[in-house]
Amino acid sequence: MRTDTPTRTVLMLGAAVVAANAAWAGQVRAAEGDTLVIARDMDVDSLDPGRAWCDTCQIYLNSVYESLVGLAPDNRTLVPGLAQSWDVSDDQSQFTFHLHPDAVFSDGSPVEAKDVKWSWERLRNLKGGASFFMDPVQSIETPDDKTVVVTLEAPNSEFLGIMNAPYTGVANSDVAIEQGANADPDADATDAAEPWFLENSAGSGPFVLETYRPNDELRLTRNESYWRDQPAFAEVVIRQTKDAVSQAQMLESGAADIAMQVDPDTAKSISSDEVTVEMVPSFNFVYVALSPGATGNQVPLTPPVREAFGYALDYEGIIDFTLGGEGDLQASPIPNGFPGTEGLPLPAQDIEKAKALLAEAGVGDGFAIDAIYPNVNVYGVDFSTMMQKVQQDLAKVGIEANLQPVTFSVWRDHIGGDGIPLTAVYYAPDYFGSGQYAQYFAMTGDSGWSKRAGTDRDPSFINSTEAELLAAALASGGEEQEKLYHELGLEMIKDRIIFPLVSPKLVLAYRDDIKGVRYSACCNLPLAELSRE
Amino acid sequence: MFRHVVRRLIAMPLLLLGVASVAFLLSHLTRGDPLASIVPERQMSNPAVVEAAKRRWGLDRSLPEQYVVYLRNLLAGDLGTSFRTKRAVATDIGERLPATLELVLAAMLVGTFSGILLGVVAAHFRNRSLDHGARLFALIGSSIPVFWSGLILLFVFSVVLGWLPGPGRLDARTAAPPFVTGMYTIDSLLAGDLRTFVDALYHLVLPAFVLGWAVMGIISRLVRASMLDVLSQEYILTARAKGAGERRVLLNHALRNALIPTLTIVGFSFAYLITGAVLTETVFTWPGIGSYAVDSARSLDYPAIIGVTIVGAAAFLIANLVTDLAYAFANPRIRLG
Questions:
Q1: Where are the beta strands (DSSP E) in chain B?
Q2: How many helices (H) and strands (E) does chain A have?
Q3: Got the DSSP string for B8-40?
Q4: Cβ within 8 Å, pair B165-A132
Q5: Considering only CB atoms, which chain A residues are within 8 Å of B43?
Q6: Is the model's pLDDT at A29 over the cut of 50?
Q7: What pLDDT is recorded for position B330?
Q8: pLDDT in tens, A275-323
Q9: DSSP tag of A168
Q10: Does B220 touch chain A (CB under 8 A)?
């Protein structure tokens, strides 16, 4: 039987494709044991340890540039990092770190005190995203190669926690200086090393940077000179995957080993029995905020009005509506589980009380308020969905919220300009410690949110007690510190400026054969702890 | 024709300069904080940090000053540094554009050949079930949103059936081939790496089909209409009367003339897809120029916005020129210049 030529061609091509597929599949599976693939929507703004500030940066910096202090899996206990031990003065104003004698950088050179001093001074002088970590520091001395003495401007019992933040990671100063980096006071204008750091790394961590292609992939390879136990994976690839559904699909098909931003709704759709899905509490939270000093306020946001606002919100309903119930209430702008938060009163809706307060304030007939917020989906919470629920809740007490979702850059323009009467934002911890929240959210007059809420224009809602409590808390420790932060939490609730809506549970979604996946308060996902069964 | 081509080539840089100037002005006048991707929210209220960032990125200068600096750099071939990626915009585009070109070329191959085939079949079997079926298939392709069809096809072929890989240009466990063109299929072949070539090709199948399906609809409808018009011409009747087989009549006589109007659509579609493939790029995590453009616009990343605009404009200008030349070549009655 004569076979038609086109048919024969098709058959041969088909056979070639099948053979190639088999060869390809076989080759890919052989590499799987060594390479970990993480699907994530990367938010990398830099890989320069002195400039980076983002969630993915935390994962990267923690894996490539080690900090002096580590954080145990319980997310509370500080453990040795590059520093083998440390001494703290009684008044919490001087910290002496003793570097581990075995610590070396990826090029084999020892980690020395000068590298620590240089890295931290550069962090401060670059005036980048994380420079504020060095604000408490008065001086850094290096009496010998393995000792770093830090003297603070004022007592700060959280300084050790700050030293755990991945942003304080130590770089090889000799290598970095050769590439145009410097730690001089004018480094913000003269340092030229960022392009180099986007293609290379100079840390002591378990991994080194292999390649980085923005919005495509971040590839790390094992640091063969790592001074501790080698990580299990020879290679880690963080693959840019924007949405949760695509991440879940990659996980189910085996194209990814871990999907980092699957939301609770999408998690329910994962049907593969080779995938583990866990919900764990996180320290992240989403909140709405009022700005009494915003120029666009149609009525003064006096304390009774703000208190009414808090009572109008259906917190449990918001958690159900946005996350299907997979979130926790949070009392104050300090996350659940942080020092001082135990026993703080959780928010609850009370419509009648809200109406009475509004009547007492002379706005019983209601009023309109502009709600400008970034149109984002963060921690599984879609802000537009959430704000629609907030709008419904406020309508029940006569407050008409005029919703205006905008891009993040437009939101920034508003919030940094005339202020926004009502907005929604989110926050994640920089390290384990409550002071950071007071420094950012307390109405002290000089905190980030006091300026944003308009204390410059309307100083009536400055709360001077908070500054005193914060200073006292930072100068104390143990139970006394817990008590002080608890009082601080109560004061921040009384401010009625920041209204935490939900602390979303984090979805850990990963292939069954991957071990060590956990949530880290400092670093999101410690890559060195991961392995494959 | 040569003079016409030269005139168009000379005009191109001037047109691009005009486009860049308009893009510069519009992006700077758009409301938003360009520091959003430079200064984190936590440091927004720190004047020292904000001032340092403005100085570093030239945002402390007046708008005319910024324009002059930008123009000077542009004339020297420097598209500036992206606020978002912190890399040269030219480097970003140099990486992203080949990715999109690879996807668009594959999509155009799929869309054009399938569209032509469907159009011919539809015309030949006019008003019969094959015609209806072909037109329905094409209509579905051009009507369904690509983000929906992409997600569904990914779910079916990658997750359920496991026949095709998931999103991305390559399996994450496969290293990219050495850079020559930036198109992984071609670069892997040039490197003699068959495994990576097959991996790249497999990853290209679904996104190229999804994008090509949308183009297929337009082309098949146009080919069908043109074929019907040509098939009614007297010379076709003459060819049949002279004993030409139906395949010869369709392909050699009718299709060649029916394809001429299709050239315009193919050229336009190609240029449009260069920056318009963003939804497909997002669903398939394809790091192309479309998604780069959207991310840049969202972040008010001025240098990247202008850079992408220049690339998009150049794509249209070049595609139009090539289409005009192809048209003149295909139709001897057309004279350029």
A1: none
A2: 18, 23
A3: HHHHHHHHHHHHHHHHHHHHHHSSS-GGGGTS-
A4: no
A5: 129, 131-132
A6: no
A7: 67
A8: 999 999 999 999 999 999 999 999 999 999 999 999 999 999 999 999 9
A9: G
A10: no
**Which residues in A lie closer than 8 A to residue B173 (C-beta atoms)?**
28, 31-32, 35, 37, 235, 237
Handedness of CA A414, A420, A426, A430 (dihedral sign): positive
SS3 content of chain A, % helix, strand, coil (to 5): 35, 25, 40
Interface test with B, best of A188, A190, A215 (most B CBs within 10 A): A215
Contact B174 A246 (CB under 8 A): no
State how far Cα A414 lies from the chain centre.
23
Contact of B157 with B206, CB cutoff 8 Å = yes
The rounded distance, in Å, linking the Cα atoms of A368 and A366 is 7
- Mean pLDDT value across residues A448-461: 90
Cβ atoms of residues B235 and B253 within 8 Å: yes
pLDDT band at A516 (very low <50, low <70, confident <90, very high): very high
pLDDT (0 to 100) of residue A185: 96
CA distance B133 to B127: 10
Is pLDDT larger for residue B280 or for residue A423?
A423
Q: How far from the centroid of its chain's Cα atoms is residue B337's Cα?
A: 28
Closest CA to A452 of A295, A320, A229: A295
Enumerate the residues of chain A whose CB falls inside 8 A of the CB of residue B84.
Answer: 45, 214
Which residue, A167, A68, A81, A170, is CA-closest to A119? A170
Strand bridging mode A285-290 / A377-378: unpaired
Asked whether residue A21 carries a pLDDT value surpassing 60, the answer given is: no
What is the rounded CA–CA span in Å between residue B123 and residue B224? 5
Q: Which of A45, A240, A413 sits opposite B32 (nearest CB)?
A: A413
- A262 contacts in B (CB within 8 Å)? none
Residue B158 CA to its chain's centroid (Å)? 24
Report chain B's C-alpha Rg in angstroms.
24
A336, A328 in Cβ contact below 8 A? yes
Cα(B324)–Cα(A90) distance, rounded to whole angstroms? 82
Q: Give the DSSP letter of residue B267.
A: H
A21 contacts B299? CB cut-off 8 A: no
Q: b/e for B109-126, b at 16 or more Cβ within 10 A?
A: ebbbebbbebbbbbbbee
Chain A residues touching B32 at Cβ < 8 A = 407, 409-410, 412-413
Q: Which residue of A has its CA nearest to B165?
A: A255
Residue type, B261: P
Question: Mutate which of A246, A272, A439, A532 to disrupt the B interface (most B C-beta within 10 Å)?
Answer: A246
Rg (C-alpha) for chain A, rounded Å, is: 26
Q: How many residues does chain B have?
A: 337
pLDDT above 70 (res A120)? yes
Q: Which residues of chain B have pLDDT under 50?
A: none
**Strand ranges, E, within A375-494:** 377-378, 381-382, 399-406, 422-427
Q: Which amino acid is at A102?
A: D
Q: What are the strands, taking DSSP E only, across A133-292?
A: 137-144, 147-152, 207-213, 217-222, 235-240, 258-259, 275-280, 285-290
A493 vs B51: CA distance, rounded Å: 33
Which residues of A are less than 8 Å from B282 in CB distance?
242-243
